[in-house]
Design goal:
The complex is a heterodimer.
Chain A: E1 2-13, E2 16-28, E3 33-37, H1 44-51, E4 59-64, E5 67-68, H2 74-83, E6 85-88, H3 100-110, H4 115-128, H5 144-155, E7 162-166, H6 174-189, E8 193-197, H7 201-204, E9 209-214, E10 217-222
Parallel strand pairs in A: 3-8, 3-9, 6-7, 7-8
Antiparallel strand pairs in A: 1-2, 1-4, 4-5, 9-10
Chain B: H1 3-15, H2 18-55, E1 61-66, H3 67-70, H4 85-92, E2 97-112, E3 115-124, H5 128-131, E4 134-139, H6 144-148, E5 153-157, H7 158-165, E6 175-178, E7 181-191, H8 196-201, E8 205-209, H9 210-216, E9 224-229, H10 235-249, E10 256-258, H11 259-306, H12 308-316, H13 321-357, H14 366-392, H15 396-401
Parallel strand pairs in B: 3-8, 5-7
Antiparallel strand pairs in B: 1-9, 1-10, 2-3, 2-6, 2-9, 4-7, 5-8, 6-7
Classes of the chains: A alpha/beta, B alpha+beta.
Bound molecules: adenosine-5'-diphosphate and magnesium ion.
Residues 11, 18, 20, 38, 40-46 of chain A line the site of adenosine-5'-diphosphate.
């Protein structure tokens, strides 16, 4: 499903350049549950943004479901993010002036779904993550765990094939984090491919495969399916 | 992407900061309101002046005037300022002429006991009330017999009656001194048209038979010949033929003119002058609109910067650049259209207030409303385009990382 070859990412920094990712090659198959661990600043988020087509590598190639992402137009990229990829962020990234329901509807809006379809699907998703009674609340009226569940419902709105989560439990207490991880586990059991970044070994233990990154390089890759 | 959802989300963003949205639309609001009010006053003034001129032109009458009176130039030998008896004789010979009368006017003192009022005095035929647009509300109008017999009778305007006698009723039958000569008041007149000029120049009038007037003021020029035409006669053609005959008689091809052409000329001039005035003041209001537009652009730029994270989130959820562009454009247009709409209401209200509380008439023109609305949309698009484009060009990841 995901095929990264010699991906590098660097940022200009003064006279030199800051090399954030160095020759990263990675394959992820459908249905895998991968967690990425590594110290802060090691390039985990950068890697995830590239996988999620939010960012482009400085060099190297990236194929998503056999399409060369580098060859896609901006509109095709937007469509890919909309249809194939769901994002969950550490700090939730909900739109503050919209209710939980409208936040979840947003990917469906960009997918061009009709209003009644959007509404019905968003309500179903929010019920599935246990927020049936919080649909019309604004994000600042929700707890951290509830916000993250809204974000997950939103990420799932267009039934993506890949779910990317950047430290989804980082801002949550242990118990709530556990709830969220159980949710991810259920999703994975239903066939969803998940890539999850975390610091927490306990959180990582939910995954079937753990990748460690240090200083922009993959140093360890355990539990690879079929490997 | 769904326009209803986009409108809802534009509305959300604006209502999140209501005061700012209102202040931003203020420039557009004031600009549109003043354009509508100014055009309304301009149009109103123009149509009022033209009404006055139009009403001077009685339906069945051709007015002939010495050209020097209406288009004064340097005094020249042989210039004609007044009609002679022969001129009237000539005019009467034409087929299609029912009657020929004349009017003459000037200023004179009208005195009653110890009171004296400087008054506009007009002499004319017994249908002077049609020519000069007044109704006799008390007493009677002077008759054709009065005119023929040079009777010393007159009709005073309401305001003159108030000044000299206190009320209309007690004016009837009183004898006033006009230029030292006694004249009996037989009627009181009220103007039957809105007269813009009267509101500025007062309305003390004395109307008398033309013959009487000529007796009292023999030195006044007879500066207007009123030819009553028989029904079915081509007025313009008759006027042309009479003018030609009179000019030949006066040995001066330019001695007399027919007032209809002259009035049309004035109407054109009045139209042009008020149009130019309206345009100039309108341009000032247009500048207010432009300044308002710059304000909108400024706030939209601030808004794009403030909402960088939101833009990143939307892009991560699959918003295309076009969707982001349209979203911000819509917000900008929503601001200016709301400003424009409130401005239109305000402009119309202002026009009504001016109409009610001042003698200035005002006519709200639908063109000004349409133009005002059109400009608010255009300004919204033009001033929103740059910020919206900037928003749509953001890199999703930079936008997401933005703190
Ligand atoms: N836009 C950028 N410009 C310059 N440096 C950046 C930019 N984005 C990320 N970095 C740098 O890249 C490195 C890796 O960042 P990140 O991928 O967020 O690390 P992690 O998620 O593993 O903590 C950090 O040192 C960070 O400062
Ligand atoms: Mg990170």
């Amino acid at each position: 499903m995901i095929r990264l070859r010699n991906v590098c990412k660097s940022y200009p920094s003064g006279d030199t350049e800051l090399r954030v990712l160095k020759e990263v090659s990675l394959d992820v198959s459908e249905g895998e549950f991968v967690s990425i661990m590594g110290p802060s600043g090691s390039g985990k988020s950068t890697l995830m943004h590239i996988i999620g087509c939010l960012d482009v590598p400085t060099s190297g190639s990236y194929q998503f479901r056999n399409q060369h992402v580098g060859e896609l137009s901006p509109v095709e990229l937007a469509r890919l993010r909309n249809q194939e990829i769901g994002f969950v962020f550490q700090n939730f990234h909900l739109l503050p002036r919209m209710s939980a329901l409208r936040n979840v509807e947003l990917p469906l809006v960009y997918a061009g779904e009709r209003k009644d379809v959007r509404r019905a699907r968003a309500m179903r998703l929010l019920s599935e993550v246990g927020l049936a009674d919080r649909m019309h609340h604004l994000p600042n009226e929700l707890s951290g765990g509830q916000k993250q569940r809204v974000a997950i419902a939103r990420a799932l709105a267009n039934q993506p094939s890949l779910l990317l989560a950047d430290e989804p439990t980082g801002a949550l207490d242990t118990a709530t984090g556990k709830d969220i991880m159980t949710l991810f586990q259920k999703l994975n059991e239903n066939g969803m491919t998940i890539i999850l970044i975390t610091h927490d070994p306990h959180v990582a233990s939910y995954a079937t495969r753990v990748i460690r990154i240090v200083d922009g390089q993959i140093v360890d890759d355990q539990g690879r399916a079929g490997a | 992407m769904n326009i209803g959802e986009m409108l809802a989300s534009a509305w959300d963003s604006l209502s999140a900061n209501k005061l700012r949205a209102f202040l931003t639309m203020l420039g557009i609001l004031i600009g549109v309101a003043s354009i509508i009010a100014i055009v309304a006053i301009g149009q109103g003034g123009k149509s009022a002046i033209i009404d006055v001129i139009e009403s001077q032109r009685a339906q069945q009458t051709v007015e002939i005037l010495p050209k020097e009176v209406v288009q004064p130039g340097l005094p020249q030998p042989g210039q004609v300022l007044s009609f002679s008896d022969e001129d009237f004789f000539i005019a009467r010979q034409f087929h299609g002429v029912a009657d020929v009368s004349y009017t003459l006017s000037g200023q004179g003192n009208v005195a009653f006991r110890d009171k004296a009022v400087n008054t506009s005095i007009e002499g004319g035929p017994n249908d002077l009330n049609d020519l000069a647009n007044f109704d006799v509300v008390t007493g009677r109008m002077f008759t054709s017999i009065d005119v023929l017999a040079h009777r010393r009778v007159g009709v005073v305007s309401h305001s003159l009656a108030q000044k000299l006698f206190g009320n209309d009723a007690s004016a009837i039958g009183q004898v006033v001194k006009v230029g030292g000569q006694p004249v009996q008041v037989v009627g009181v007149a009220v103007s039957n048209q809105f007269n813009l000029l009267a509101t500025f120049f007062g309305s003390d009038y004395l109307y008398m038979p033309a013959t009487t007037c000529k007796d009292l003021f023999p030195w006044w020029n007879i500066s207007e010949m009123d030819v009553l035409v028989t029904p079915g006669t081509d007025k313009a053609d008759l006027a042309r033929r009479i003018v030609t005959a009179l000019n030949i008689h006066a040995h001066n091809a330019d001695a007399f003119i027919d007032s209809s052409g002259f009035l049309v000329g004035i109407e054109k001039t009045v139209g042009t002058v008020t149009s130019i005035l309206t345009l100039v003041i309108g341009a000032v209001a247009g500048i207010a609109l432009i300044v308002g537009g710059v304000g909108v652009m400024n706030i939209m730029l601030v808004s794009v910067t403030e909402r960088t994270e939101e833009i990143g989130i939307r892009m991560s959820l699959g918003a295309t650049r076009a969707a982001i562009l349209v979203q911000f454009l819509l917000e900008s247009v929503m601001i200016t259209v709301m400003g424009g709409a409130i401005g239109i209401l305000l402009g119309i209200s202002a026009s009504w207030l001016i109409h009610w509380f001042t003698p200035l008439p005002s006519v709200v023109s639908w063109q000004a409303v349409v133009i005002g609305f059109f400009f608010s949309v255009v300004i919204g698009v033009l001033c929103g385009l740059y910020p919206a484009n900037k928003a749509s060009k953001l890199n999703p990841i930079d936008a997401l990382r933005y703190e």
